[in-house]
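## Example record

The block below lists the input lines for one assembly entry, exactly as stored, with component labels intact.
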Amino acid sequence: MDYNRMFITVHPLSVETARWCAHDSRVDSILMTPENISLFDKKQLGVMKYYSKPLEVTMKDLLDKVELRELIYRRLKLYISRRLPFILSSRAEKWCDLYPPLSLLKIMLTQYDVPDEISMLAISNIPEMIISRKRIDNT
Amino acid sequence: MIWELIAITALAISIILFISTTYLLRRVNRLYKGLVKLIELKPSKVKRVRKRYIVFAALFEDEISINELDKALRDVFIMYYGVSLYSKASPRIVFYDERLGRGVLRVSHTCVDHAIATLGLIKSINNKRCIIVPIRTTGTLKKAQEYMLKTRI
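Predicted structure tokens for the full assembly:
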């Protein structure tokens, strides 16, 4: 498996895995979902910041789970306040699951108080940096 | 001996002055930041609610009528932002070309962000899958119609 040409996102389900992923150079981002949201505490944040590992969140999780919004909101605010890079993905399975970029920025602004500039980085610059660093092509 | 004493005293005085100046500057900076925050916290007085026109394009499986779109917009807006904000925003589709799938949404200027977010959140209308892409926000209907015809996705 050529780790240098693939975008690798890990969905950790235990604290050990989450810590290990944070300092593993093969991993490009760590996925935060409702199943593993409790793993993302200040210690995990510290490790991820030290190794500048981006956090990935999906729009489906941000919008669908109403009961977990509070937890997600607090984590997101903490991570953004510490200037940790994060990636916003749609987790689209069908074409209609995609979000227009402008709407995405406004959704993040109105629902999670994330400024437009940070959301813009999360959907464009940070993924682009990883893709260009790893020289991933479409083929 | 005297010159050395004078030099040491001068050095000590300069160090004390440096420390006190930095301390004072920090205090002044903190005061300034506090003042700026106070000014920013002052509630802005919106004298008159102005209208904004959002040009959008709908990508769909089947054709959607203006009534269906209006209903879906209302439902999604109320679901995510509530009835109170809906009444403040008062979004209305003023123009919609069913064939082209382009339209203009009118909304109050205080809730433009919410309206754009709502457009993105509409995923299906009457079990017909669709995406609504906001293109441009304008201040007049005339300009909105110009952009509607001009812009290509």
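The first strand of chain A starts at residue 9 and ends at 10. Strands of chain A lie at 9-10, 29-32, 55-58, 86-89.
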